[in-house]
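Sequence only, no structure available. Ideas?
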Amino acid sequence: MTPATDEPTVPEAGEEPPPPVGHVRVVYLGPVAPHWDVQSDFGDPKLIEEFRQRTLARLVLLPPHDPQYRRNRERVARDAERENITLEWDLGVPEEATAPTAPPPVSDGDPAASVPSA
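Reply:
I predicted one. Tokens follow.
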């Protein structure tokens, strides 16, 4: 075996990733276009501006409830990972928020359900 083939091509499991080169926050502005703003806390201005342009190109006409938004959000996340930029999303609502629940259905055996209201 040669020394070139013995060297790992994948980082070791215990090896830490390099520190991020920048930070970007993608903010949802609301239902009126433009829907998005890209803000940066730190990083090379040229790198951040190029990332900002690519991000806005993917999201400019998409509100968060659009099905295409989900696919493009993943593309933005992969782009940030490739560029080693930390990415934060601010949609104005907590991401863990669940959709409003519907009232429970009325059961067939409920006598009150069969009585018309006055």
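The mean pLDDT is 76.
Hope that gets you unstuck.
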